[in-house]
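Render this sequence as a predicted structure.
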Amino acid sequence: MSEEAGAKVPTTTIHSSRFGDLEVPADSIIEFPSGLIGFPGARKFVMFDHKPPFSWLHSADDSNLAFVVVDGFEFAPEFVLKPPVGDKEIDLLDSDEYAILVIVTVRPDPRQTTANLKAPLFVNLKNRKGIQIIYDNPKFSTRFSLWTEAQDAEAKEAEAKEAETKAAHAKRVKTPEE
């Protein structure tokens, strides 16, 4: 057993305007030493599940700052996101395991939800340090659509079936005046 029976795991409280106070394991904090683009003062984050495939990356420094993210490996092999091996800020070695997080912009119409593949986040899982890398490659978009044409066709088909069901139900239901 790695922990003694009854040993309490150290926790920290993250204040969130969106979710209230969150008690998280202290070792779950991810540190971005340089912050994120546009948020240089937000350096400590915690990640928690939302609705798959989405997760939240919530700032421990700013109770109002949280990002929806997805696993960057979901985009491989179409997009090869090369890790920053050798980067001194996160001490990432060839042998280290890492995560790739891609920030998502969720819009009211889910078909307009996009992912920022141009500036993914890399997290060294060994030391829980992360960095945001900007790729100077036109293939990587800041607004990569997460909604495919196939999904659009499926949604339209589902909407049509739902309309047919409602119409059939409306024909069977008679109003008191009839």
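Summary. The longest strand covers residues 98-105. The chain is about 15% helix and 30% strand.
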